[in-house]
Amino acid sequence: MGAYILRRLLLIIPTLLGIMIINFALVQFVPGGPIEQIIAQIEGQGDVFGGFSGGGGNAPGAGMDNVGAGMGGGGGNEKYVGARGLPPEFIESLEKEFGFDKPPLERFLGMMWNYMRLDFGESYFRSISVIDLVLEKMPVSISLGLWSTIIAYIVSIPLGIRKAVKDGSSFDTWTSGVIIVAYAIPGFLFAILLLVLFAGGSFWQIFPLRGLTSDNWEALSWPMRIADYFWHIALPVIASTISAFATLTLLTKNSFLDEIKKHYVMTARAKGLTESRVLYGHVFRNAMLIVIAGFPAVFIGVFFSGSLIIETIFSLDGLGRLGFEAAVARDYPVIFGTLFIFGLIGLVVGIISDMMYVLVDPRIDFEKREG
Length: 371
Description:
Main location: membrane
Protein name: Microcin C transport system permease protein
Number of strands: 0
Number of domains: 2
Oligomer: single chain
Order of helices and strands: HHHHHHHHHHHHHHHH
Shape: globular
Transmembrane segments: 9-30, 142-161, 173-199, 229-252, 287-314, 334-360
Keywords: Cell inner membrane, Cell membrane, Membrane, Transmembrane, Transmembrane helix, Transport
CATH topology of the largest domain: MetI-like fold
Organism: Alloyangia pacifica
Low-confidence stretches: 46-58, 61-76
């Protein structure tokens, strides 16, 4: 197993490098870079800073309010849309501040060298490092991802087992109908429905409308802080759990059905073991292999996917909104920094998932399979 893990770890390097190369190359052809964003802001057409809080005079282009005094009738730069009439010296200073005065290859190699040293730079439009920005937004995304995954497993595993045992019954039929309907409902639509029903939209005012905590959270006692946190996170977690809940339930059911039909189950029953002993003493371990081992991947999937709309609807400032705002503003340090970090996390989680398979079922040997 050690040699297999080592090979997988070494494979992370070319995989992550390929991800970064493809995305960096694609960005070179995308119009509306950070310089164009600043030019548009000067001309009163952009909204590059509209989605950002904080920021200061240390960010590139922060002194653009003083550009008007230097703008004459001539000059300009044909390379950037809307730059006509701006002093060439101003454009050159922006290029130097953003690093665009260097060739793309040199910029890419410099970026990767910094990433290897865990230096992810600073946001173009905020006076804060990318790492600090990610750490600032991560609690919201972790809250959504972790609790959604835990609830999905708590509900899906018992329900899936029950459906497998009652396969073909009326219980199995109507619960399958409910699961299919739940899976078909988009998360954002379900989130709006929850707001309308339980957040004062048109019916009951039971849960808060926005935010992760109340305004007076700091003044609350620890028990009240915990209660306030779960009070705020309830609706977003339910909205983000809906699809994972359906998938895991059917996966659990199918895993149990496959195991129940095997010969060792019939042998155990023939020996006179109770149905509960057969089900939970023999079938459970084998049937839960794919479900339990997939926990890290399920958590990462919920953690990264579908969070933007949920965070927007419930006014939560997490990684989903951070990525969207960075893409709109062409904040390349944030875009590439988070891409590198999350790409690395995803690849490592893949290795952890394989290790979970071996931990749950020692009979699995990836080294022999590769051989």
